[in-house]
């Protein structure tokens, strides 16, 4: 284009590499900033690199990069590393990241929630309880999960406690039926996504059932005559990152229901079609 790249150009490039797993390409682009373009990497560029390594499971490289940064790591750095530790079950490094993140963002529940999940997944329920207690003692409240879907001329909101929608019981009843249908074609609830410590499996599955994007999808199915194209395209917005269980659920639902489902979470657009997602299960 015969144009000189600026700092923001590299944020976009590195972010793109991170989201598709192009680690080597991302490293080359990062190095070219100073080597070829005379641009000094900023905190945002280091955050992209930590995310790049973390998503790819190269946590030791992410940690090494953080230690070598010429500036103090911000909360976004530790947030990214902690999310990657959760994905790959890295408990020791996660504890460091959670402590650093909570120190920089004391009013955020993210560090507590992620560590609780990590400990629960590892069967370390006593430590998970301690994390939850520390969160309560600090008077930090967890951000509720919210999802929105437009039905006709109205936008329907679904909250993680399930209490905000007047058709809640009918939606949950239809959702139970859909879950049963999807189990017949391979759906297996990811109960390790639920930080409920040593509770019964049925209780954990019940918690997964109430995830807001699932309820939003069922609401759309129940009102598909009000959607364009006969309800074959469903668009859902979500205020948090979609979990692995809901991601698998949406893939199978798109195949079973023969619908295109788009979920816009905090990270990206997920376009589910014919049992696959546009992110290739990497987000």
Overview of this protein structure:
The protein is α+β, with helices and mostly antiparallel strands. The chain has two domains: 7-137, Serine Threonine Protein Phosphatase 5, Tetratricopeptide repeat (Alpha Horseshoe); 146-277, no CATH class. Helix 3 runs parallel beside helix 5 (75-88), helix 5 packs antiparallel against helix 6 and helix 9 packs across helix 11. Mean pLDDT is 89; it is low at 195-203. It is built from twelve helices and six strands. It has a six-stranded mixed β-sheet, with helices on one face. The radius of gyration is 20 Å and the shape is globular.
Q: Descriptors for this entry?
A:
283 residues, alpha+beta, Serine Threonine Protein Phosphatase 5, Tetratricopeptide repeat, six-stranded mixed beta sheet, 12 helices, 6 strands, 55% helix, 11% strand, globular, DYW_dom, E_motif, PPR_rpt, DYW domain-containing protein, signal
How many β strands by DSSP?
6
- How helical, in percent, are the residues? 40-55%
CA-to-CA gap between the ends? 30 Å
Structural class: alpha+beta
Number of helices: 12
> How many independent structural domains?
2
Family: Belongs to the PPR family. PCMP-H subfamily.
Keywords: Repeat, Signal
InterPro entries: DYW_dom, E_motif, PPR_At4g14850-like_plant, PPR_rpt, TPR-like_helical_dom_sf
Organism: Stylosanthes scabra
């Amino acid at each position: 284009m015969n144009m000189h790249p600026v700092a923001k150009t590299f944020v976009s490039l590195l972010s793109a590499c991170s989201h598709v797993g192009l680690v080597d390409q991302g490293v080359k682009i990062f190095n070219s900033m100073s080597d070829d373009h005379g641009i000094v990497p900023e905190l945002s560029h280091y955050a992209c690199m930590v995310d790049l390594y973390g998503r790819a499971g190269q946590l030791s490289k992410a940690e090494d990069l953080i230690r070598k940064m010429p500036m103090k790591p911000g909360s976004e750095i530790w947030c990214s590393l902690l999310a990657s530790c959760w994905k790959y079950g890295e408990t020791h490094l996660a504890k460091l990241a959670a402590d650093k993140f909570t120190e920089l963002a004391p009013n955020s529940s993210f560090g507590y929630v992620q560590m609780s999940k990590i400990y629960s997944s590892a069967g370390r329920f006593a430590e998970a309880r301690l994390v939850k207690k520390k969160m309560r003692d600090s008077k930090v409240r967890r951000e509720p999960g919210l999802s929105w879907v437009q039905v006709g001329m109205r936008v329907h909101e679904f909250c993680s406690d399930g209490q905000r929608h007047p058709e809640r019981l009918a939606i949950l009843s239809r959702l139970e039926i859909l879950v049963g249908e999807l189990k017949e074609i391979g759906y297996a609830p990811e109960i390790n996504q639920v930080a409920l410590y040593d509770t019964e499996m049925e209780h954990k599955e019940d918690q997964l059932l109430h995830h807001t994007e699932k309820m939003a999808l069922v609401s759309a199915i129940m009102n598909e005559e009000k959607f364009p194209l006969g309800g074959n395209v469903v668009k859902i917005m979500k205020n948090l990152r979609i979990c692995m269980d809901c991601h698998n659920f949406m893939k199978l639902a798109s195949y079973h229901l023969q619908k295109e489902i788009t979920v816009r979470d905090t990270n990206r657009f997920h376009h589910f079609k014919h049992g696959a997602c546009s992110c290739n299960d990497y987000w």
